[in-house]
Amino acid sequence: MSRLAAPTIRAPRGSIHDTCVNPAMTVKFKDYYETLAVARTASPDEIKKSFRKLARLYHPDVAKNKLTGEEKFKEINEAYEVLSDPEKRKRYDELGEHWQGGAPPPPPGGDGGNRGGRSAQGEPDFEFGGTGYSDFFESFFGGGRGGFAGARGGMGAAEAAGFARRGRDVEADLLVTLHEALHGSARKITLRRGGENGAAERSDTYQVRIPPGVREGQRIRLAGQGGAGHGGAAAGDLYLHARFARHPDFTVRDADLYYDLDLAPWEVVLGVQVNIPALDGPTSLRVPPRTTAGSQLRLRGLGLPHVSGGRGDLYATVCIQTPSTVTTEELALWEQLARGSTFNPRSKS
Amino acid sequence: MSDDRFTERYFVLVRPAEIGRTLYSVETASHLTGVHRDLLQHYCRVGLLGEERATSEAEPVFDDDALYEVRRIEHLRRHQGVNLRALPLLRDMSREIDRLRAEVRFLRDR
């Protein structure tokens, strides 16, 4: 039985004195509005548009320069994750108002738990690197999945009465691009932990294998890499939750991908052959004549891997776009069409 | 085939054909979670650990998600005072929240 990951470097970092440092104090406020280049008053639609524009430039699946794009994309994705959700955005705005000179207010109650190494019961903190999410995000917005937040706080700690108790489990989100979900990948994750039981603060690096076909929310377990056990008991585990990065072109529903296919009115009526993006590279799609707005054209097997094998589908949703400016000649043609057409979109018959 | 046969069977948590997942036997899962195998099998029977159900006679196998769920259930029982009868209710609510969150996310993204 192969382990998903094994520690590759085990480098003690800092000294016992460092254990007094509260890592929460080092969490830096992130200006998500600046990251997405939008105003604080931006509408949800403006935020979405700006995200898509920037993601197209920097998304590792799309960008030409993958190395410089990747870090930038992670920041954009994180910012969008917060600002696209009205509740998170509200919390973020309130957080910004109360953030004073690097002294963050305490994280929201209940949601903290072990996430991002938030300490419960005054235990040492954990800080992750390479997961694709900042400490700021993990501290205040991590753990977007369902379930009962309270269950996370100190989970696994104090399991047995007496002296021996198993170390607590630690969990963090792991950003996974759709390309990684399709092909799998290996990622380097660092975990810095404060001293436990008088041990020195240390930093570990793990090579984490993301299996092809990984699902949103799937957990990758690193055995024995959580909190240290007490009284000779085993250490807790480290759980990484796969979370799909938003893609500039596709939205995900289970194993299926959805793509908005923008077409001109005449293309929809007359039919057209177009090239559309897919995870495997651009693909050709024939839009049949008399296609109606909102129709979904299915490209079989171009989605994400299914749990049970095989792949989901890619759906192109037909969106009709109209020109914002028209030339005199075009206007004449539209007028000619308006005069001659019997089409009435408001007819109820 | 009588209905009784189904009640005697365990749910198979993970299809063996699945890709890229580490699977554990009930003994290994018991060792890793510190939960007795009989209790693990009870969790499986009442459907607490996964949605995939099969009619196979095979013993349940556990993946990392299932181990996580076991740890969470144990935490709920020991530290939050949740009893065995309330667990399926919590599971249903938790899954419904997950499903709704995914749907909202999808609709918002469009």
Describe what this molecule looks like in 3D:
The complex is a heterodimer of chains A (349) and B (110). With 349 residues, chain A is an alpha+beta fold. Helix content of chain A is 23%, strand content 23%. Chain A contains eight helices and 13 strands. In chain A, strands 1-5-4-2 form a four-stranded antiparallel β-sheet. In chain A, strands 8-9-13-12 form a four-stranded mixed β-sheet. The longest helix of chain A has 18 residues, at 66-83. Chain B has one domain (20-104): Multidrug-efflux Transporter Regulator, Chain: A, Domain 2. Chain B is built from five helices and no strands. Chain B has helices at residues 3-7, 26-33, 37-45, 64-79, 87-109. In chain B, 55% of the residues lie in helices and 0% in strands. At the A-B interface, strand 6 and strand 8 of A face helix 4 and helix 5 of B.
Summarize the entry for a quick read.
The complex is a heterodimer of chains A (349) and B (110). With 349 residues, chain A is of the alpha+beta class.
Protein traits:
heterodimer; A: 349 residues; alpha+beta; 4-stranded antiparallel β-sheet; 4-stranded mixed β-sheet; 13 strands; elongated; disordered N terminus; B: 110 residues; mainly alpha; Multidrug-efflux Transporter Regulator, Chain: A, Domain 2; 55% helix
